[in-house]
Amino acid sequence: MCQSKITRKVIITNSEGLHARAATLVAEMVRRFEARVKLAKDCEGVEGTDVLQILSLGAAQGEQLMLEATGEDAERVLDALIDLFASNFAENGENSEEAENQP
Fold first, then answer.
1. What is the pLDDT of residue 102?
2. Are 89 and 21 in contact (CB under 8 A)?
3. DSSP 8-state secondary structure symbol assigned to residue 73
4. Coil, helix or strand for 53?
5. What is the mean pLDDT of each run of 10 residues along the chain (103 residues)?
6. What Cα–Cα distance (Å) separates residue 33 from each residue in 7, 42, 86, 89, 95?
7. Is 38 a catalytic residue?
8. Which alpha helices (H) appear in 32-73, and where do they start and end?
9. What structural domains does the chain harbor?
């Protein structure tokens, strides 16, 4: 069976960019779903479960990433990632504890 790809664009709004803690949160989020996720910046794509690959993108504030997912949970994982990016990786103070305690 052919699986279609779902893509979404996100802009990094976090002042620290996609740093180590944020990359870890992204990889942990992806691992919770039955989907394969790739993140791409400037035509360089990396696996969404690999923190070091995510960091290698060097995504800074204001830069755009393309998120691509395939699999059973493709839509759900992208929705969750969009929310994570929109929350600036829960670094606004009150949300950070809540994000760290998610299953």
1. 44
2. yes
3. T
4. helix
5. 84 94 97 97 95 96 97 96 93 46 43
6. 16, 26, 19, 18, 22
7. no
8. 51-56
9. 6-88 (3.30.1340.10)
Q: Which of 48, 50, 19 is nearest to 35 (CA)?
A: 48
pTM of the entire predicted model: 0.83
Contacts of 79 (CB under 8 A, 6+ apart): none
Among residues 19, 21, 38, 76, which one is catalytic?
A: 19
Lookup: tokens for 99: 């994000």
- Tokens describing residue 19: 């740093």
Q: Would you state the pLDDT for residue 29? A: 97
| pLDDT score, position 94 | 37
Written as six digits, the tokens of 86 are 């929109």
Beta bridge partners, 38, equal 47, 68
